[in-house]
Amino acid sequence: MSAQPFSTHCSHSQHAHCSDCRLAGICLPISLEISDIDRLNEIISRGRPLQKRDYLYRSGDPFHSVFALRSGAIKTVKVTEDGLEQVTGFHLPGEIIGIDGLATNTHNNSAVALDTSAICEIPFHRLEELSVRVPSLQRRFFQIMSKEIAEDQALITLISKNSAEERIAALLLSLSARNHNRGLSADNFTLPMSRADIGNYLGLTIETVSRIFTRLHKNGIILLDKKQVTILDAARLKTTSQAP
Known about the structure:
This protein is about 40% helix and about 20% strand. It contains 8 helices and 10 strands.
C-alpha cells in the first residue's frame, strides 16, 4: 500500500458521521451497535479544521471535552518551570486527545496542530451520560486512559535508559505500528513532526536526530527523503531499538 500524508486519510468535512469514518475501528468499541453510534454522533461537534500551528487547547484551559483526531497530526506540549517547551506526545488520526485535563478539570498540556487537522469534539459530560447507557463505550474510554498511562511510562523509560539511536528507532517503530492500525502502510509513511520536535520529545539535539537518521539511511535500515520514511529492514530497526 502506498504511503499517504497524515492529513489526507480522512475527510475534513464538518458533516462526517462516525459510521462512515474509516477510523471508527480505532477510536470506537468494536461491539458498538449502529443505534449507539448514532447516539454518539449526536453529541459530537465538528468545527472547522485547525491549521498548522493552531492550538486545539492551551495549558490551563478548563477541561470540558475530549477530542478525536480525524485527520492531520497534533503534538502536545508542556511549558517547564524555566519557560522551555517540552513536547509530550504526537497524536495521529483515530487517537483521542485531551484526557490530561480529567484529573484537575484543567488541561496540563497544550495541543498544537502539526498540519491541517480535522477534530471531533466530544463534550465529556455528555460522554459520561452516554457511557451509562452504553457500557462498551465506557470500557473503551478506560482502555484509552490506560494506553496513555502506558505510553507515558514507556517514554520515561526510553529517555532515561536508551541511547539516541534506540530512541529514534523506537519512535519509528511506534509510528509504523500506528500507521498499520489505521490501514496504511507500516513501511512507508510521512513524518508529521519536525526534526526539532523529535529531538525535543526524545531529549536529543536536532543535530543528533539528523545524524541518527543519516546513519540509519546509510546502513540500509531506512530510506529517508526529507520527511518521507521507508523502512527497508524492520528486523534490524527493531534490533536497534532494543540494543543493550
